[in-house]
Amino acid sequence: MRQYIVDSNFFIQAHRETYPIDVVSSFWHKIKQLASDGKIISIDKVHAEICDNSSDILSIWCKDNLMKEFFLNSASVTGQYTQVVQAAERRIPAYNKRAKDEFYDAKEADAWLIAHAMALGSTIVTHEVSKPDKIGKVKIPDICNMLGIKTITTIQMFRELGEKF
User: What ranges do the domains of the chain cover?
Assistant: First the structure.
């Protein structure tokens, strides 16, 4: 079974823009089901970005509806993380220092998300868009393209899974 690993913006954008928890409950029931079935997962850094120091409706939903095991521990992928960092370092055009510092920050999820996808052979679900000429921000799809990791949007994931709700 193919597993999809979801980025912070998978949750944030869904709640804020497209599928607010208080309006489109069927979307959130589907997410809970996919998580319970092991079809989607995420990582501890995404959990921190959504839940730490927050008690908004999204963080409460995540705490109440997603098992602790849904958010994988990043300590297990340090070798892959090193490969992700090396890919960002060799990218042409080179990223500026600020972009690299932000991407390498241990609290930021993006590099760790890619490392987990490498380790698991997972597809990353994100709403980031490739910007191959941009040097001021490291984009998940650009590093994934370098490493042969597939990235898709939420709707693409639903189509691949054959899910309807």
Answer: 4-161
Rounded distance between C-alpha atoms, residue 62 and residue 9, angstroms? 13
CA-to-CA distance for 156 and 152, rounded, in angstroms? 6
CA 93 and chain centroid, separation = 24
* pLDDT one-digit tens code per residue, 57-79: 999 999 999 999 999 999 999 99
What is the CATH code of the structural domain delimited by 4-161? Answer: 3.40.50.1010
Instruction: State whether the Cα torsion 135-140-146-147 is positive or negative.
Output: positive
30-37 long-range contacts, Cβ below 8 Å, gap at least 24?
30/163, 30/165, 31/65, 32/65, 32/66, 34/161, 34/163, 35/65, 35/66, 35/67, 35/70, 36/67
Amino acid at 67: M
Give the pTM. 0.95
